[in-house]
Amino acid sequence: MSDIFDAKEHLLFQVRKDITYLYKRLLTELEDVKNRHWQMIGKLRDSLSPESQKLVDAANFLDNTEYAYLRKKVLDAGNDAIRGIVQEIEQFNVTIK
User: Fold this and answer.
1) Around Cβ 19, how many Cβ atoms within 10 Å?
2) What tens digit of pLDDT does each residue of 17-53 get?
3) In which region does residue 3 sit, left (phi positive, over 0), alpha (psi from -120 to 50) or beta (all else)?
4) 74 is in which domain, residue-wise?
5) Pairwise CA distance, residues 55 & 53, whole Å
6) Phi, psi (deg, nearest 5) at residue 32
7) Structural domain contains residue 94
8) Is residue 64 in some structural domain?
């Protein structure tokens, strides 16, 4: 059994881990924005007449469909970044000082 340290594999692991952490944080921020948005929509609706509430509902852009679309865009961007960086790293021989 060989105990050779593979620097490139270590680098690839770190890149995947850090990019994944980044887009998980972005997803958390997106979730926070969605929650704050819905809180504000709720407060606004509660302060208006039923007729005016319809206008708020019509102006509400961050519904579940839009949220799912934005979430998918974050995940796709993270996965694209990982693939791109991995492809670049594959072109190099990597050693550690």
Assistant:
1) 20
2) 999 999 999 999 999 999 999 999 999 999 999 989 9
3) alpha
4) 7-89
5) 5
6) -60, -45
7) no
8) yes
Tell me the HSE value of 63 on the side-chain side, using a 13 A CA sphere: 7
Place of tokens 């000082």: 97
Q: What is the pTM of this model?
A: 0.81
**DSSP 8-state symbol, 92:** S
CA distances from 34 to 3, 40, 45 (A): 48, 10, 16
Tokens standing for residue 79: 């996965």
Query: Angle CA(93)–CA(18)–CA(89) in degrees, nearest 5?
Result: 20
- Is residue 1 predicted with pLDDT exceeding 50? no
Residue 42 CA to residue 20 CA, distance in Å, equals 33
Q: Which two tokens stand for residue 21?
A: 């952490």
Does 74 map to a domain?
yes
User: Looking at the domain assignment, is residue 61 inside a domain?
Assistant: yes
Q: How many domains, in total, are found in the chain?
A: 1
Query: Cα–Cα distance between 72 and 20 in angstroms, integer?
Result: 14
Of 88, 79, 66, give the one whose Cα is nearest residue 23: 79
